[in-house]
Amino acid sequence: MRFAPKSFTLAALLAAAFCTASAQASPFLYYSYDSPDDATDGMITDNSGNGRDGTVNTYDSGTAIVDGDVPAGIVSDQSLALTEDADGDGARVDRTISSGDLNFNADSWTVATWYQRNDTDNRDFILHVGAGDGFGGENELYIYQESGSDNVTLQHISGGTDINISTAAGPAGSWHHVTAVHDADSSVVRFYVDGALAGTDSSFNFNMSQSNPVIFGGQNATSGAGFANRNLDGKLDDSAIWSSALSTFAVESLANGNLDPNAVPTKRSPDLFLYYSFEAPDVATDGSATDNSGNGRTGNLSEYGAGTATYINDSPTGILGSQALQLDVTDNANAAQLNRSISTSDLNFSAEDWTFASWYKTTDTGTNMLMHIGTGDGFGTDNELYLNVHGGQIDLVHYYGSGTFDVNLSESGLNTAEWHHAVVAFDADTDTFMFYVDGELVGAASSSTLNMDQTTAFRIGGQAAGSHSRDFDGLIDDTALWSRTLSEFEIGQLYSGAQLAYSVIPEPGTLVMLPLAAGALLMRRRRAA
What we know:
Blueprint: H1 9-18, E1 24-25, E2 29-31, E3 43-44, E4 54-59, E5 64-67, E6 79-82, E7 90-95, E8 109-117, E9 124-130, E10 140-145, E11 151-158, E12 160-168, E13 176-183, E14 188-193, E15 196-201, E16 214-216, E17 234-242, H2 248-256, E18 264-265, E19 272-276, E20 288-289, E21 299-304, E22 308-313, E23 323-328, E24 335-340, E25 354-361, E26 368-374, E27 383-390, E28 393-400, E29 405-411, E30 420-427, E31 432-437, E32 440-446, E33 458-460, E34 474-482, H3 488-496, H4 514-524
Antiparallel strand pairs: 1-18, 2-17, 3-4, 4-7, 5-6, 6-17, 7-16, 8-13, 8-17, 9-10, 9-16, 10-11, 11-12, 13-14, 14-15, 19-34, 20-21, 21-24, 22-23, 23-34, 24-33, 25-30, 25-34, 26-27, 26-33, 27-28, 28-29, 30-31, 31-32
Helix pairs in contact: 1-4
């Protein structure tokens, strides 16, 4: 029986422990709102260990109480529920931060929080930096949801509006994750919603007063027209600030809910050779796929005849992101594929460890080449390795010429028109291929005849030669290649949608600390039922 995708509490803890000190971005402050905090003392504990506790301010009959409702999948036991109404009742969490500690105008920083609004009756402010009440009278930055709208907006006012990034977040009553990042080195602000980049801006004039506190769940007015209707009527969870510009990967990890904000990975594993997520801001119209590993190994989208390679809104349930690569094939002359030239000096597929992983979905019952290494057309005339999807079956085959093969592993009975996850892991010490489908080992086979020609590009969604009618006709997502053999545990993590295998791996000295780290985190937080 195959296991279903799920959120891994232990995996989250291990992922946190896997991050070395040099690969972590420790938060400037972090409010988890978890027990033993109960907000009745008017304070919120800073779980970063930096002693920057937050103050709970309530106005009139507004309330701030802990609540057992938390975002699905995160490791948490309670959130902070704030009530507000049109009469000026409300509550918020604030912390005064001097420019000497963190200068929001000149330094790099990241602010992130989970939030849920109760309804759309009022304008709900989630974050506010600077003086002002959100009406633009001051130099101020804020994240808010407008009344009567499901859009969430990052806005900065400096005389006029110079940052205005807005995107749909979904209906009231659901949890969402928002992140604002200021990269001072490149003078760019990035805004993410639920881990996806909503937009960027580089034309702004920050001059925000820090004599006013940074606020979660409200804005800086305490009375008058600017106060009523402008505090959050809803809940907050895992609110944090970093004194650095977190990477897109780090933001994804936070929104994925599987990582503690105290241990956010800031860089990919050094063994992640290439990674195509196909997510915005990447577009297919430029004929390339961005390498999200950070290694600059951009993929080439090749279209033949009327064949097309496009990005569409469809992705496997449980993974980050919403886009996938769609390859449209009709016949030999009309097809598309993704390819990347990889020299043997960079990664030798015949002599070094490596792992390939990809999600795929197709309803086509013919031959669909998901991956191909070497020359040849899949008929075995050359030394070639490929994954072939046909109907409800996927095959891993290695030919070494003259139509003779020594690796032939298959998984059948798969539901078509559904997403599936395929992994090939190669152990060069034993010349053994391990083949996994949907997180489960299908089989292993060894080859003593590996000599795949790498003068031909590595193919995703096609083969090197012959009929393009054998190119992949369907959807592909989260395609990656590692220069090591992933473990069965890591492969299970990929299938579950967790980010462990993409992040940094432990240094040898940290391995013995994994149980201790996991135990410590388990003692601090438990998964909500």
